[in-house]
TrEMBL record:
This is Dehydrogenase. Residues 3-337 form the Isopropylmalate dehydrogenase-like domain. It comes from the Bacteria. Gene3D superfamilies: Isopropylmalate Dehydrogenase. Its cofactor is Mg(2+); Mn(2+). InterPro entries: ICDH/IPMDH, IsoPropMal-DH-like_dom. SUPFAM superfamilies: Isocitrate/Isopropylmalate dehydrogenase-like. One of its GO terms (molecular function) is metal ion binding. Keywords: Manganese, Metal-binding, NAD, Oxidoreductase. It comes from Streptomyces parvulus. Residues 319-341 are annotated as: Disordered.
Amino acid sequence: MTRIAVIPGDGIGPEVVEQAVMTLDAFGLGLDFDHLDHVNAGTYLRTGVALCDEDVARVAASRSALLGAIGDPRVASPAYGRGVLLRLRFELDLYVNHRPARLLSDRLSPLRPDRPRAVDCVVIRENTEGLYTGMGGALRAGGEHEIALDIDLSTHRGTSRVVEHAFTIARREVCMVDKANAVEHGGSLWQRCWRAAAARHPDVAARHLYVDAAAMRMVTDPTGFDVVVTNNSYGDILSDVASAVAGGIGTAASANLNPERGFGLYEPVHGSAPDIAGTRAANPVGAILSAGLLLADLGHTAEAAALRNAVDLAVADGETTPDLGGSLDTGKAGQAVRARL
Ligand code: NAD
Ligand code: IPM
Ligand code: MN
């Protein structure tokens, strides 16, 4: 049995993960799901800890993990998200955040129809460093002379391994995105790691854009991108932009990976969407496509392709949730995908 840890989480997380698990089940691959239903904001509010050491060990002992979303309007502190999502990413060293964006149907593109629109790119986001490490502090906290510091950490090891990964998965080009014109030390390190990786992969084109220009291009000419590699924060932002030009945040999938260890934590790019939680309006496609990335990484390539194709067909048939112009609820939209497998 291949054990998959499942963390439904908060808001629409459980609603979309249920559909992803049912879709995986439809393949009859003998996957065995280990549900960590208690890892949510309710537990955090009651006990102060949502994900304990034992939970981390359960996830680490699994073959892969599937997560819905972490976040709740009752919790203001970043300690909760840090204690669950970032803890898993950091402790399991899932240094690659693989976020593909592929236009599901022409009618979903917000771009003008006279432009080429076939978006099909991957944002590779560095997932264990940058502004997310919690390093830093506050001086003279609370007063009007307060100074807040959040260190933007880039190490040679962390940068070179994620840039190298981007080149190994590229079909034609890697575009490295940084802010080296303003951010001195990290900018220089990313530039050097990118040049060294480009020299190791002469068969792959290497492009560079500053993050402001990259955000602009991601909107005006997203079809030009193949693989975008960038740091933790820029990757967070650019993957949301890419999701929007590829059909919408409800459709975007992601994989948090450690390629050497072959372990992945799969989750939709979106959050817990408190504004629609409980209304059955959540689009399950992002979670289902995340389950598809899980299948592909487990070697079930044919099933993964069938899953992607079934999603495309359901979307083309308008058998979708309201965010994509359909009228189905979460469950019916999931069913529409499974009916096309
Ligand atoms: P969000 O992604 O939850 O929602 C942004 C907008 O997109 C909302 O209008 C929402 O209704 C819509 N949306 C999101 N997913 C959708 C879906 N599947 N179907 C249809 N519409 C969808 O982002 P937010 O509002 O900034 O954050 C809400 C909470 O989620 C916060 O606590 C945040 O920290 C957390 N969050 C968690 C993750 C994660 O677990 N990976 C990712 C992003 C945000
Ligand atoms: C994401 C989310 C998280 C991030 C938040 C919830 C900490 O936005 O997975 O994209 O920024 O990594
Ligand atoms: Mn995000």
